[in-house]
Amino acid sequence: MPNSRYASTPVCGVDFDARDTTPVHPIGTMVFLAGGGGPEKACYVQASGAIAASQTDITVSTAGQASDGLGTWENSATAFADNEYGWVWVSDNT
Description:
The protein has strands spanning 30-35, 38-47, 58-60, 65-68, 85-91. Helices cover 0% and strands 32% of the residues.
């Protein structure tokens, strides 16, 4: 049985810095990235409250809701407004 949490369609060309007011991917979709600092995984989330740019302590629930504080996920230099959709990522050394 395939893992339905990971993207089933190509993500080539996806803007990981974009913020959207309506979802363009299923919330909670995960993808693997080859980041500059090593392997990473990204998750498409909905912000539960505003999240400042370049945060490094984002919490992501199993339902794909992201909130600021106490987590290990990061976002880009583009902030999230409350209820916006976009990508966050975390190092994945597995």
